[in-house]
Structures are given as structure tokens and as C-alpha cells.
Design goal:
This protein is about 10% helix and about 45% strand. With about 120 residues, the chain is mainly beta. The protein has one domain (about 25-120). β6 (about 80-85) and β7 (about 95-100) form a beta hairpin. It starts with 5 loop residues before the first helix and ends with a strand.
Amino acid sequence: MIRLPRALAIVALCLGTAGGAAAQQAETGTGGTIRVLDKITGQVTDLELANGEAASVGHLSIALGECRYPAGNAAGDAWEWLTIFYQAVPDPVFQGWMVASAPALNAMDHPRYDVWALRCTTP
């Protein structure tokens, strides 16, 4: 069995959903809410970030590039473009879209932290 890279699998899933990706219209929120779980301490932190803003939680630095949601339905779902760095490691441990309704679809693989997209902030 041939295994597709994660990004290709996400594209295939989006194209296979009802109406297809081309029919899905999206709007851009002014920011978004991100949830961080420290699996060692059990501490949960919710971050409210504006598009282009970054914040630190524990050993993570999280930057929200953009938050999108279905047109006319801000509560329907959220897609957040995130770049996440761990301590002083120069390469991001995660960079890409996280989907609020399917957090395992494109999850950050880290032994200590879990990160989820929750929702977009609307004007």
C-alpha cells in the first residue's frame, strides 16, 4: 500500500468533501484562539492571537499567520495557519494549517505539548 504524505492526504480529503474545496468560500478572521496542553503538568492554556501575532507558552513560541472560517458561518469551523517553535531549535516543530473540527488531521507531533485550533475571532 502506498502512503501519501500528510499534506497530500489533507488536500485529497478536502477535495472529497461535500461540494469540494473550490465551492467552499472562506472569510478571514481578525485572529484566532489556540489551546495548548502541557502533557507533563496537565496545564491547559488558551491563547487569543491576532493574525500575525506570536506568543509563548512554556517552551513553545506560537505564531498565528491567519485564521479562516466558512463564509457566513464564523462558528462553523476554523482553519488556522500556525508556525510553532520549541525552545531555541531553529526549525519549527510545526508549520501548517490546523483544522478546529479535525485536530488529528494535521496535528503537531511533540512528546510534551498538544496544540489545537479552536475558533476564529471575527470583526
